[in-house]
Amino acid sequence: MKKSGFVDEVCVTIASGRGGDGCVHFYRGKFEPRGGPDGGDGGRGGNVIFIADRNRNTLLEFARRRHIEAEAGRPGEVRSRHGAAGRDIEVRVPVGTVFYESPDTEADTPVADLRRDGDRFHAARGGRGGWGNPHFATSTRQAPDFAKPGLAGETRTLELRLKLLADVGLLGLPNAGKSTLLGRISAAKPAVANYPFTTLVPALGVVEVDERRFIVADLPGLIAGASEGVGLGDRFLRHVERTRVLLHLLDVGGAWLEDRDPFDDYRTLRNELGLFDPELLGRSEVVVLNKVDLVSDRQRLAALRERFEAEGCRVFAISGATGEGVDALMQETLRTIDAAAEIDTAKQDEASA
């Protein structure tokens, strides 16, 4: 079996560079056989800096690169020349990477959260360079024969967790048709097959509507108990936390063929979201009745829509396979994204007031 290149959780050990030692030296010239101290200071050690990069979407690199170490500072030199500073090491990670101390000694609280492209996290600062012997000269000690060593850098172990940033999250039970829909509305090529859990890792697609673009994440299928780790478990649920709009994809064709109520499927999705994080229940959402091409009784479909609308849900009937209703759904999705963005802006304005 081919292994996926998507990794969303990994531990790494990082170490900043040690500072260079100070130099012990005395100036000797043709007419100054016993000149004063002129040892230079050591250079500082290099820092370890993480930078969010929108062109990356996995932590796979760190599954193979478990130790990251910056360059040490150079020692001081004669004639008061300072040693060169160690080069910083800049490590690029996907936007949405969250950093935790590992092991976390107190609570599951992040030490950094890189949410925007270009955000930086100085994870380990280099050690300070040692002083050369001129720093220790006094009126009574004019020839100090010692210098200060450079300070050690920082070493720490961090756990990196990726929370994908997407405008829209596709949610659904296994075989709801999420991958088929994502493949129709974007250039993404997720796995599609007639068995559960064909989507084992989140997949991203860029959708264009009216010269606008937004990102859709196809998230692995939910089942009852996912918030407690059943099935694919809660590892995928954290990717929902940063989606602005949720599309609940319900397989009406398959559900009725199996004598299952799609409304119960919707309740299952909502229940697992609430158990994982009650705040998710307040996200903007659209109910999508998928696989209508398999439904011969359109009156039954209309009755189902009325049940959802009576609960205050916005409902769209589509077929990801044939494209029926998909354009109208994407138009509504774009309007919902804009409305959710206005709400978020208003909340931020209130918080800063």
Q: H/E series, N to C?
A: EEHEEEEEEEHEEEHHEHEH
How much is the radius of gyration in Å?
A: 29 Å
Q: Shape, please?
A: rod-shaped
The quaternary organization reads as single chain
Number of continuous helical runs:
6
- Can you tell me the CATH superfamily of the largest domain? P-loop containing nucleotide triphosphate hydrolases
Helical residues, percent = 10-25%
- Name the CATH architecture of the largest domain: 3-Layer(aba) Sandwich
- How many strand units? 14
What does this structure look like?
The structure is a single chain. The chain is α/β, with parallel strands linked by helices. The chain has two domains: 1-163, GTP1/OBG domain (Spo0b-associated Gtp-binding Protein, Chain: A, Distorted Sandwich), CATH 2.70.210.12; 166-352, P-loop containing nucleotide triphosphate hydrolases (Rossmann fold), CATH 3.40.50. It has six helices and 14 strands. It has helices spanning 60-64, 178-185, 252-257, 262-276, 298-310, 326-352; strands at 9-15, 48-53, 67-69, 89-94, 97-101, 112-114, 120-124, 155-162, 166-171, 203-209, 212-218, 243-251, 284-290, 315-317. Strands 10-11-9-12-13-14 form a six-stranded mixed sheet, sandwiched between helices. Strands 3-1-8-5-6 form a five-stranded mixed sheet. Helix 5 links the parallel strand 13 and strand 14. The longest helix is centred in the last third of the chain and has 27 residues, at 326-352. It is rod-shaped and about 105 Å long. The two termini are 54 Å apart. The model is unreliable at 1-5, 190-200 and 225-233 (pLDDT under 50).
